[in-house]
Specification:
Strands 1, 2, 3, 4, 5, 6, 7, 8, 9, 10 and 11 form an 11-stranded mixed beta sheet that branches. It is built from 5 helices and 11 strands; from the N terminus they run E-H-E-E-H-E-E-E-H-E-E-E-H-H-E-E. The longest helix is centred in the N-terminal third of the chain and has 13 residues. The chain has 260 residues and is of the alpha+beta class. Strand 2 and strand 3 form a beta hairpin. Helix 1 packs across helix 2. The protein is 20% helix and 31% strand. The protein folds into 2 domains: 102 residues, Alpha-Beta Plaits, CATH 3.30.70.580; 140 residues, 2-Layer Sandwich (Alpha-Beta Plaits).
């Protein structure tokens, strides 16, 4: 048995999320179906983390074990010839025995995109939250910095996926407005050692309250201290969220990213 590591991208618009669900089209289902056709085996794949319906990925990482003689690059090409057009394998490598895309991840980075221009962009509607009012991205960025570091993020977790601990470490968080042709976009980036269910979307929904001047910049610190989801802002819609990359520790003990 060999262990493989795939870096994949997908457009989540027509997918019911990552996890296999009876009667629904998911990323895991289409990937396992393609692998079965290529290898002749029932292969079970593990992702770095589950994404919800409508959420996209530019650098999701997947691991699986299979009895296959195919070289990783041959496997990548075969998968891309078999997979539907909204899922693609960017890279395939053979991983050390025992590698697990979920358990061995040390950092993940998500991006959330908001469009707040005067007119809706009909061509981008599946890839952003189309917000009807202009947001103060600078105020959102200042308010977000209180979330840096190690905290209990219970107030930013939607019920439905219980965790042993709600403590996470945020290494990077930023909010910026795009430039030039992208000046109607507000881009939120969050990198952490792990995420609670809907954590990024709850953070974005909370920061939007600051951006539209409904709350002060200091309110985000109050939400963090409260540890109560009812205190925070709404959960931002799924279509603006992208899993950008996942980082692992290689055998030399150094971080190594996948995706981008």
């Amino acid at each position: 048995m060999r262990t493989f590591k795939l870096t994949i991208a997908y457009d989540g618009t027509a997918l019911a999320g990552w996890q296999v669900q009876s009667g629904r089209r998911t990323v895991q289902e289409v990937l396992e179906t393609a692998l079965a056709k290529i290898t002749g085996q029932q292969v079970r794949v593990t992702a770095s983390g589950r994404t919800d319906a409508g959420v996209h990925a530019r650098g999701q990482v997947v691991s699986f074990r299979a009895e296959s003689r195919l070289a990783p690059e041959v496997l990548r090409r075969a998968l891309n010839a078999t997979l539907p057009r909204d899922v693609v394998v960017l890279e395939a490598v053979e991983a050390p025995d025992g590698f697990d895309a979920n358990r061995h991840a040390i950092r993940k980075r998500y991006r959330y995109v908001i469009h707040d221009g005067p007119a809706r962009d009909v061509f981008a509607r599946h890839y952003c939250w189309q917000y009807p009012f202009r947001l103060d991205a600078a105020a959102m960025d200042r308010a977000a910095q209180v979330l840096l570091g190690r905290h209990d993020f219970a107030g930013f977790q939607t019920q439905g996926s219980p965790r042993v601990s709600t403590v996470r470490t945020v290494f990077h968080i930023s909010v910026r407005r795009g430039e030039g042709a992208q000046s109607d976009l507000v881009i939120v980036e969050v990198e952490a050692d792990g995420f609670l269910y809907n954590m990024v979307r709850a953070i974005v929904g909370t920061l939007v309250e600051v951006g539209r001047a409904a709350r002060s910049e200091f309110w985000v610190a109050e939400v963090l201290r409260a540890k109560d989801r009812r205190v925070a802002g709404r959960t931002a819609p799924p279509q603006g969220l992208f899993l950008m990359r996942v980082e692992y520790v290689d055998r030399a003990g150094e971080g190594r990213g996948a995706g981008g």
